[in-house]
Design brief:
The protein has about 400 residues and is α/β, with parallel strands linked by helices. The protein contains 13 helices and 14 strands. It is globular and about 55 Å long. Its EC number is 3.13.1.1.
């Protein structure tokens, strides 16, 4: 297949591009390199030393003989460039990662909220609009999030996208219908993924676009089989308070002797998936497109659920790290259960990589290797969901006063 990977320079976009290229597909990355600019804005850098995208693709070619093409295009702003590129290349499939993906970053200020909404919604809409305008039968695979559902299971497992409901008609009969599972976003970022869902439903119905939406959990790990091929193919690894996600953060914190930053009671249960499984799921989704004229295909892209405090306690036991119980900068349920259906990927052959497979200590080792690159002052999560919460997030786990965030 000829595949365009929108956002192919990012944390999952890069290993996905390598994986698909390795599997024999013709891969084109379209990216505006915004993650690199945001690193500069925040004054942080990936734990792992990352080369430029041009250097990464050069090394890939030198090591494997395969080419990955790179195009500097901003999907949200350069509609005509995007349309011209699609008209010229007519890809069989598109993997769409080209969105701002951090909840804390999206909640930092009014400017960050505007940026996240404008960037994410425009990028998705421009893509859909261009596919219709060019009359392309391209399969669009989008990276959504488990967070569109919220994290409450009301005693029933979260289904894969659609919920069967019975509705009583005016004549007293009950008709059954399948509706999109009610969305319940917990941040501006998560809200943009809910808006994406509506755009997809409309374009699948009105223009018969073939769309798959992958509702992914929190991705952990850093290496995949392909990023291991050469040191310069290494994936990025975010540890800072905005872009670092919980499990990877705890592992790097353990490696540098920083107390594990549990928000609140740590009773939040979330869905997880290893980055290697994430790229496999994307390949499976590409190989199983929905029919033209059908509804949006939705998969829950996760393999296990864990409670934040259980993760902290497990890593503390494994490494001897201390745990810091911090005021929660977010507005979220302090405790929740989470049961999620994920049969569709399992039936299509996914063999889940679980936490118990020795990979946790491998990540601690990666973190130790690059520990000299860590700026400890960037570890605390200071982006607060509301002004009253901001007033409570004052000290980091090492007891230092943080700059005011309210
Ligand atoms: N948390 C801590 N300590 C930390 C960091 C996080 O206790 O140092 C807690 C948070 O309060 C939250 C949970 O861990 O309850 C998860 O936070 P996270 O930063 O790991 O994940 P989240 O903000 O939900 O976002 C990440 C990705 C996003 C993806 C989402 C999937 O950044 O792109 O969509 O995970 S999901 O969480 O299933 O919605």
């Amino acid at each position: 297949m000829k595949i365009a990977v929108m956002g192919g320079d990012g944390f999952i976009g890069w290993p996905t591009s390598l994986h698909l290229s390795h599997a024999g597909h013709e891969v084109h990355i379209l990216d505006n390199l915004s993650r690199r600019w945001i690193d500069t804005e925040l004054g942080v850098q990936s734990l792992t030393p990352m080369d430029s995208i041009q250097e990464r693709t050069r090394i890939w070619h030198a090591e494997t003989g395969r080419r990955i093409h790179f195009n500097l295009i901003d999907l949200a702003k350069d509609y005509e460039l995007l349309k011209n590129w699609l008209a010229e290349h007519r890809p069989d499939a598109i993997v769409h990662f080209a969105e701002q993906r951090a909840a804390p970053y999206s909640m930092k200020s009014d400017r960050h909220k505007n940026y996240t909404v404008n960037n994410n919604v425009n990028a998705t809409h421009n893509l859909l609009n261009a596919l219709v305008e060019l009359d392309l039968d391209t399969h669009l695979v989008h990276l959504g999030t488990m967070g569109v559902y919220g994290y409450s299971t009301v005693g029933a497992a979260i289904p894969e996208g659609y919920l069967p409901v019975g509705i009583e008609t005016m004549s007293g009969e009950t008709v059954s219908q399948e509706i999109l599972y009610p969305s319940n976003p917990g941040s501006i970022y998560h809200m943009t993924k809910c808006l994406d869902q509506l755009l997809f439903a409309f374009y699948a119905k009105n223009d018969r676009l073939r769309i798959t939406d992958l509702h992914q959990g929190i991705v952990w790990g850093t290496h995949t089989a392909e990023t291991r091929i050469h040191e310069q193919l290494i994936n990025r690894f975010d540890y800072d308070g905005d872009y670092g996600t919980v499990l990877n953060r705890f592992l790097i914190q353990a490696a540098i002797g920083y107390p594990l930053t549990v928000h609140g009671t740590g009773g939040q249960t979330r869905a997880f998936i290893h980055v290697q499984d994430s790229v496999r799921c994307i390949e499976i989704a590409l190989n199983n497109p929905p029919a033209r004229g059908g509804r949006v295909e939705i998969f829950n892209q996760m393999t296990e659920t864990h409670r934040v405090r259980d993760l902290a306690e497990m890593i503390s036991k494994m490494t001897g790290a201390k745990i810091a119980w911090l005021p929660n900068p977010r507005k979220e349920a302090p405790e929740n259960d989470l049961v999620v259906k994920n049969e569709k990927f399992i039936e299509l052959g996914l063999k889940p990589t679980t936490l118990g497979e020795g990979l946790l200590s491998e990540i601690v080792d990666v973190a130790k290797k690059y520990a000299y690159r860590v700026d400890r002052s960037r570890v605390p999560a200071v982006s607060a969901w509301t002004k009253d919460i901001a007033a409570t997030v004052e000290r980091d786990p090492e007891g230092k006063r943080l700059k005011s965030v309210s």
